[in-house]
Amino acid sequence: MEGEPLSALCTPALVVDVDKVKRNAQRMIERCQKLGVQLRPHMKTHKTLECADIMTGESRRCIVVSTLAEACFYADHGFDDILYAYSVPFDKVERCAALSERLDLFQVLLDHPDALEQLKKRRLRDGRQWHVWLKLDCGNGRAGVLHSEPEALGLAQAIAETEGVQLTGVYAHCGNTYNCRGVEQIQTVAQETTSLTLQFMEKLKAVGITCKSSIGSTPSCSHPVKDMAQLSEVHPGNYAFYDVQQSVIGSCSLEDVAVRVLTRVIGHCPHRNQLLIDCGWSGISLDGAGKLPTGYAVIEGHPHLKLLSMTQEHGRVEPISGPLDYRKYPLGSLLTLIPYHSCATAMMHTVYHVHSDGRLLGRWTPTRGW
């Protein structure tokens, strides 16, 4: 299908504008170069080799993953310096050990002393060490040991003092930037997360421990604050694709969003003043419910339409106000959905159709599983 228009695709189909991906990635590379920090891009949004090459400048080094399936996928294709940024699951310690013994640098993350005990029980062969990042909660309220608790410093010391284990760094995710609206709010959260992380690094220094520091989220790294220059690394991920959510937050403009879901009109329902489309939640996800005036997505070029609801394979579209002019939407006609959350939408597809200026270039195939 190379060279054909997007309309040649069967729907629903996830399409990726590779020019926008490259532009988004280059901007992030340049931001980090200007700050003087190492960019460690997160793979969790796209989970493909091609996009990983774009985000790493084809170095195939220094990446973050959220699943062990991703870690194995990238390791199998020549990537190294991989950080598995998920509190190390006890059922996967042996697989983590295998990657640690195979790669030049495979790193794990933990936030509980019981996880450290698991690593102590599984010594690595050939004198290798576990490379461990301490997950710190600086206000995000998800994983991580709370920055202000004495247990945080105690756990860092325990990691540093354990034979066969190295404290590689301190890792904080400022996912609370996702509650922001506008650059000022984003930078306020980014500053708070950066300051708390740097304060914790000073606590470590006071007890003789030195290691790396890293924070990240797409909003914070799209609008970084100056103090982020004092960090070792940053680890954003969604920025390669962006999405409607990021445009609402203020991370990007809607024009920066590199992904769309193509769908076709399959039904007219004048008794309900609705259209039926062939994209249900299995083609775009249910993420973003009730958060947009246009429903679950933005319907490109049709600001008066709303994706009201979905079942597995059907979507219900209706006008925001007034009667629907069915002559504008004949059966078989294409609509283009800009997803609320590209990470969730991408997970619904086993192949991405890549294009430039609306002409198909090929396919990217993501890895799946945990």
Automatic annotation (TrEMBL):
<dbReference type="GO" id="GO:0008721">
    <property type="term" value="F:D-serine ammonia-lyase activity"/>
</dbReference>
<keyword id="KW-0663">Pyridoxal phosphate</keyword>
<protein>
    <recommendedName>
        <fullName>D-serine dehydratase</fullName>
        <ecNumber>4.3.1.18</ecNumber>
    </recommendedName>
</protein>
<feature type="domain" description="D-serine dehydratase-like">
    <location>
        <begin position="258"/>
        <end position="356"/>
    </location>
</feature>
<dbReference type="InterPro" id="IPR026956">
    <property type="entry name" value="D-ser_dehydrat-like_dom"/>
</dbReference>
<keyword id="KW-0479">Metal-binding</keyword>
<dbReference type="InterPro" id="IPR051466">
    <property type="entry name" value="D-amino_acid_metab_enzyme"/>
</dbReference>
<dbReference type="GO" id="GO:0036088">
    <property type="term" value="P:D-serine catabolic process"/>
</dbReference>
<dbReference type="Pfam" id="PF14031">
    <property type="entry name" value="D-ser_dehydrat"/>
</dbReference>
<dbReference type="Pfam" id="PF01168">
    <property type="entry name" value="Ala_racemase_N"/>
</dbReference>
<dbReference type="GO" id="GO:0046872">
    <property type="term" value="F:metal ion binding"/>
</dbReference>
<keyword id="KW-0456">Lyase</keyword>
<dbReference type="InterPro" id="IPR001608">
    <property type="entry name" value="Ala_racemase_N"/>
</dbReference>
<dbReference type="InterPro" id="IPR029066">
    <property type="entry name" value="PLP-binding_barrel"/>
</dbReference>
<dbReference type="InterPro" id="IPR042208">
    <property type="entry name" value="D-ser_dehydrat-like_sf"/>
</dbReference>
<keyword id="KW-0862">Zinc</keyword>
<comment type="similarity">
    <text>Belongs to the DSD1 family.</text>
</comment>
